[in-house]
Design goal:
8-stranded mixed sheet; 489 residues; 11 helices; 28% strand; alpha+beta; 22 strands; 31% helix
């Protein structure tokens, strides 16, 4: 019995160390992924309030190291009477060759917003438009992006990939670069050398051989999508497909695009955990939000971290079984984002905890479902230790600083701790009912939300006010400390 208890003790300790290393890896790698962009962050530009973007189509040719050319189609609904011009967010580092609305070429200026200090295209429309009317604009451009689209190599092979959160979609394609305005759907057509595979959101509808040494991958996304979640990943990928069987007769493909030189039994075993994670999260949160399309992973450079591009998370993968770089935690984190961040996206970056805190807690829910209460409690304790390092409010006060938005102890770990406390207050059954009600709320599902939206749903399900809780933990700082003494007689 003593031997068994000792073995259990060492098992728990080892598991705690493993989880601790994995948690630190996610935090460190995601922080690094955004830290190099800090100097580029300006104000939270809200986009042109006169239009509601309904559709993006990117038809682009991409060549190493990261040359880009082609055109982007933007469809939008008009929200202001007599609108004769609009603003799109777009870097001045790329050259706009022409803009067409309908059959008409229209004049435009690439400049810097005098109000926000952000790069824009100020363009005319072909005529005045009234409220409720729609237009379609085609922007032809070319150049070499300085951000948003990146390049590297693996095994001496080029790789080109995007990472647009929070402010960098406009650095590689013209858009309304705010999470508050989701397009209803999108297409991404990518022309690349025939030695490359090009990966993006949604379903691959066709691959066309252009008979000139290139081929074009046509990806179609049928769901609402925020601009920063549209993605590209291009290299000589190996495709490994497994499946999420969500009913006795139906399944969804999980498409894993991996560097061929690292694809081995260990990597396959990690990727094979994804179907079970999809089952766990679908049971807890409701069915995977993009079930008619796919889920998958596209490898990017580095040995860790990830980005929750809709239906196709970008991830760092290691083929070393002794490395914690590409772990269950990273897989679970980015998968959790498909519900929290992709299905419902924070309306602005003040409320980023609705993305990251919830994804962080999704990891813990996976540990609990897969490995039991001991593993969950161990991981939760580590999460809380990191959360205690948080400075300031979970509600991000300064969104001009990317480091403040993606602050590990505060946005990720304290966010997860607050969710666990909410679970303790309302009870298990009510907590998961809150999450499912939030994710399926008619005004929020496949849209955007603020903390107040989540609080309203939580209170309606719980049946009592949670105002004190949210004021203290989302808008308040620090954490309480208790002293306890006892004496014996």
């Amino acid at each position: 019995m003593k031997k068994s208890l000792l073995l259990l003790f060492f098992t728990i300790c080892s598991f705690s160390i493993l989880i601790s290393q994995e948690e630190e890896k996610i935090w460190e790698h995601e922080a690094k992924a955004f830290s190099h962009k800090n100097s580029l962050a300006k104000l939270n530009y809200p986009g042109d309030s006169n239009i509601d973007v309904t559709y993006y189509k990117l038809d682009l040719k991409v060549t190493p190291p990261k040359n880009i050319s082609g055109h982007v189609t933007v469809s939008a609904k008009v929200l202001t009477q007599g609108l004769n011009g609009i603003i799109l967010d777009f870097t001045t580092q790329l050259i706009v060759d022409s803009i067409k609305v309908g059959n008409s070429l229209v004049p435009f200026i690439q400049t810097i917003s005098s109000v926000y200090g952000t790069p824009i295209i100020n363009t005319n429309l072909d005529r005045p438009y009234n409220i409720g009317e729609s237009f379609t604009m085609v922007i032809n451009y070319h150049g070499v992006p300085t951000a948003g689209l990146y390049s590297s190599t693996h095994n001496n092979i080029p790789i080109m990939y995007t990472s647009s959160e929070p402010y960098y979609a406009k650095d590689w394609y013209p858009c309304k670069d705010t999470p508050a305005d989701k397009a209803d759907s999108s297409d991404v057509w990518i022309t690349v050398d025939t030695s490359f595979t090009a990966v993006s959101n949604g379903t691959l509808t066709n691959t066309i051989n252009n008979n000139n040494g290139t081929h074009t991958f046509r990806w179609k996304n049928h769901y609402p999508i925020a601009p920063y979640l549209i993605s590209l990943a291009i290299t000589n990928y190996t495709l490994y497909t497994n499946y999420y069987k969500y009913s006795p007769t139906d399944s969804m493909a999980i498409t894993n695009y991996v560097f061929p030189e690292i694809f081995n039994t260990y990597v396959k075993s990690l990727l094979d955990k994804t179907p079970e994670m999809l089952t766990v999260f679908s049971n807890k949160f409701g069915q995977y939000p993009f079930i008619t399309e796919k889920y998958g992973h596209a490898q990017w450079p580095g040995n860790g971290g990830g980005m929750e591009h809709q239906t196709i998370s970008s991830v760092g993968i290691s083929s070393n079984p002794n490395s914690s770089s590409y772990t269950e935690s990273i897989i679970a984190h980015e998968l959790g984002h498909q519900w929290f961040g992709d299905k419902i996206t924070c309306k602005d970056w003040h409320h980023i905890w609705l993305n990251e805190g919830f994804a962080e807690y999704s990891e813990l829910i996976w540990w609990e479902a897969k490995y039991g209460k001991i593993a969950f409690d161990s991981s939760m304790n580590i999460n809380n230790l990191i959360a205690k390092q948080a400075i300031g409010t979970i509600y991000v006060q300064d969104i001009t600083n990317v480091g403040q938005i993606f602050n590990g102890p505060r946005t990720y770990y304290k966010g997860a701790s607050v969710l666990h406390m909410l679970r303790g207050i309302v009870g298990d059954s009510t907590f998961f009912t809150i999450l499912q009600t939030y994710l399926n709320h008619p005004s929020l599902a496949y849209g955007v939300a603020t903390t107040e939206d989540f609080q309203s749903v939580a209170e309606s399900v719980y049946g009592s006010s949670l105002n004190y809780f949210f004021n203290e933990w989302i808008y308040g700082e620090n954490y309480p400390k208790y002293s306890m003494t006892w004496a014996s007689k």
